[in-house]
Amino acid sequence: MTPDVSPQTLTPRTLPTETPREDVAARQRWMRTLATASTAVLDATWRGWAPKPAVQAVRGPEAGLVMVRARIDGGGARFNLGEATVTRAAVRLHGEPLAADAVGTSYVLGTDLEHARLAAIFDGLLADPGQRERVLAEVIAPLEQAHAERDGIRDAEARSTLVDFFSVAREHE
Amino acid sequence: MYVAVKGGERAIANAHALLAKQGRGDVGLARIERAAVAGQLGVLVSRVMTEGSLYDPELAARAILQAQGDVLEAVTLVRSYRTTLPRFGYTLPVNTAGLPPQRRVSAAFKDLPGGQQLGATFDYTHRLFTDRDTGGPRIDPGAGPGAGPAASPGLETPRVADLLGAGALIEPDHVPGADDSEPADLTREPPVFPMSRAGRLQALARADEGFLLALGYSTQRGFGSTHPFAGEIRVGEVEVEFEAPELGFAVPLGRVEVTECQMINQFQGDTDTPARFTRGYGLAFGRGERKAMSMSLVDRSLRAGEFGERVVAPAQDEEFVISHSDNVQATGFVEHLKLPHYVDFQAELGLVRRLQAEFRERTLTEASA
Asked: Where do Low complexity bias regions lie (chain B) (predicted)?
């Protein structure tokens, strides 16, 4: 990791808060993919990434909690089910090959600090219009495909337990 | 009341060293890896997460190992750990209807849309010792629709309760325009009786499985009868989304596995509303079917007041159930009895000696009179 080149720091307050609405869905998609990816895969991808912008930690990575909510009877009023560990990070990327400084943010379940840091780095790369297509093609799409394959296998195994019960009616009634 | 004691540092350090040695077992055998616990003792991990009220399979596995398999000790470790972490906020409510079920069964309808899917279950096993082939299910690629991976995205698995709800045969799960204010949070405010159903469900979700099982069982045996049918039980992964304040949109954090039970119970009706089924709800982290079922029975029995039912059984008594359901509190109070109570006991010892002396004196005087 490149050490800080500028003393400038970003606080959570100075992070960009406005994401254009049409971009939200796209960003949610890659944030979902990065959150469910394995740290080892992200690490290997980032190690092999070239050219690399400089990375400056803005916040974290830090572990914390979110209270997971559900709905009474599945669809009713909200209630608090229990907490889950979450790790978040924010990084600032600057220098080549980025057109401008970019800020990446991540929130991932669990307490793996490295996972959150790497997810934030890729989120930052994806914020750069010049890098986005490459990251989507080389990182996000393969991860999504691997995920879909794993889900497919899980679903197929679950569907193999589909059962057809016969009610045995009493005779002579 | 117990009293503070001093000293004993060497003995305590040695006791802990001995505990660690005993927990290690035979040093000729490999240590159990954390990942092995998470992978091979998944049901235990689920229980520790649910009662520890913290979803993190890795932490739960670590707690189980450190606690040498003592579930309540592991739950306590998890609960202590969570107090060291900052709370980022509340997630959006998880959508359990949208989860692609690994398991989904109904005891009420045989032919429900989407089908009954057994998933990974101990049901229908013979409960005999066996060496299972762990290669997984045999999947016939030509087994028709639903067998292949491609079939699942479009697969609809509507809730059984919604099928009944469409015909108004069961109370609705929500009333349009109903109050959806911030639910009570036991981790922030201690419970005040009577509680909201939301507050109760949070308490029941972290409640001891054995306690809820016994209470649920008692309702079936007539102590506050609920006449239940397992309308639907689902196990699967749901996505958790968090509205990050600095981003301004819902961030997908990943998935958590949950078990949900929708219990359908006997009718309620009055002069204004026709008779219809009532609901009990259970939700637990991971694979916790017994917990979710017990929780849904107790949730329904605790709604006695809401339906104007007479409160005659322990399982209907909110204060009794909620105050005694948390196993960290329960074990703390029960187990504190082993801590030094020397002063209290000396006082009682003195009292009982005096009472006996007075008794002897009185009987002597009466005999001589």
From this structure: 136-154
ipTM: 0.90
How does DSSP classify residue A140?
I
| Distance of alpha carbon B283 from alpha carbon B197, whole angstroms | 14
Q: What is the pLDDT of residues B184-227, one digit of tens each?
A: 999 999 989 999 999 999 999 999 999 999 999 999 999 987 78
User: Which residues on neighbouring strands pair with residue A107, listed in sequence order?
Assistant: A88
Instruction: Find the CB nearest B246 among A12, A32, A110.
Output: A12
For chain B, the structural domain boundaries read 9-82, 96-120+156-172+184-327, 339-368
Q: Is A14's pLDDT higher than 60?
A: no
Q: Which of A10, A39, A62, A72 to mutate to test the interface with B (most CBs of B within 10 A)?
A: A72
Cβ distance of B254 and A110 shorter than 8 Å: yes
Q: Chain centroid to CA A41: how far?
A: 13
* Chain B partners within 8 Å of A162 (Cβ): 115-118, 146
pLDDT bracket for residue A105 (50, 70, 90): very high
Domain extent listing, chain A: 20-156
Rounded CA-CA distance B301/B313 in Å is 9
Q: Return the percentage of chain A with pLDDT > 90, whole number.
A: 64
Q: Do B82 and A65 touch (CB under 8 A)?
A: yes
- Residues A85 and B198: their CA atoms lie apart, in Å, by 22
Residues from chain B that touch A86, judged by Cβ atoms under 8 A, are: 88, 242, 253
